[in-house]
Amino acid sequence: DAKTTQPNSMESNEEEPVHLPCNHSTISGTDYIHWYRQLPSQGPEYVIHGLTSNVNNRMASLAIAEDRKSSTLILHRATLRDAAVYYCILRDWDTGNQFYFGTGTSLTVIP
Amino acid sequence: DSGVTQTPKHLITATGQRVTLRCSPRSGDLSVYWYQQSLDQGLQFLIQYYNGEERAKGNILERFSAQQFPDLHSELNLSSPELGDSALYFCASSFRDKKNTEAFFGQGTRLTVV
Q1: Residue A44 in 3-state DSSP?
Q2: Please, what is the average pLDDT of chain A?
Q3: What is the DSSP string of A54-104?
Q4: Mutation for testing the B interface, residue in A8, A38, A97 having most B CBs under 10 Å
Q5: Predicted confidence (pLDDT) per residue in B33-81, tens digit
Q6: N or C: which end of chain A has fewer CB within 10 A?
Q7: A44 vs B42: CB contact, 8 Å cut-off?
Q8: What is the distance between the alpha carbons of residues B90 and B87, in angstroms, rounded to a whole number?
């Protein structure tokens, strides 16, 4: 059962902001929203996570809707190095706090 | 560098030949996760250990086994590999296994079964 829904692919121009959406309509009150990305031929890499409030770190920002049924990962200025598959993951009691990866969004950055 | 070390990077084995994949977690991390990534299946959760004890199992086949040792390193064993087991195997570690804890992944072991 898919707990998150993401577009299969997105494109962005280099140095422009990118907004990667994720729907998680079945989220419960204590589930955390995590984002990871996987660059070609590498292991997944932690990006950011949050519960209710918007979160910022050096890599990205996470905007969480007020009803928490969706979230958006924001890359402020896309670089070629940001081309990767981005995974939105819920960590919840149903999954035993595991990381279950869906199909993710493949981001292409155009020079 | 995530701090998670996986060895070997590449492994070629014949069907039925037992193999062992090794993972050294980040210093201080108590939890270790194993994932399999093949082209048609994406990243599949296999098994998790926390401080030496099995914590959770995913869709792991019987020919797969794993353990976490007292020094917290972990090994994933395939007793009798089949062609379909050819894949990338990733290990991840985290300090705890709570929902608000991030995990760090190694660079993977590419297993080829011939």
Answers
A1: coil
A2: 91
A3: -EE-SS-EEEE-TTSSEEEEEESS--GGG-EEEEEEEE-TTTTT-------
A4: A97
A5: 999 999 877 899 999 999 999 988 888 999 999 999 999 999 999 999 9
A6: N
A7: no
A8: 10
Q: Which of A98, A100, A103 should we substitute to test contact with B (largest number of B Cβ atoms within 10 Å)?
A: A98
| Facing residue for A49 by CB, picked from B42, B58, B100 | B100
pLDDT in tens, A25-76: 988 888 889 999 999 889 999 999 999 989 999 999 999 999 999 999 999 9
- In residues, how long is chain A? 111
Please, what's the b/e burial string for A30-48 (b: 16 or more CB within 10 A of its CB; e: otherwise)? ebbbbbbbbeeeebbbbbb
Q: Do A101 and B43 touch (CB under 8 A)?
A: yes
Query: Comparing C-alpha atoms, which of A82, A63, A60, A61 is closest to residue A71?
Result: A63
Q: What sign does the dihedral A21-A68-A44-A61 (CA atoms) show? A: positive
Express as a percent the part of chain B with pLDDT over 70: 100
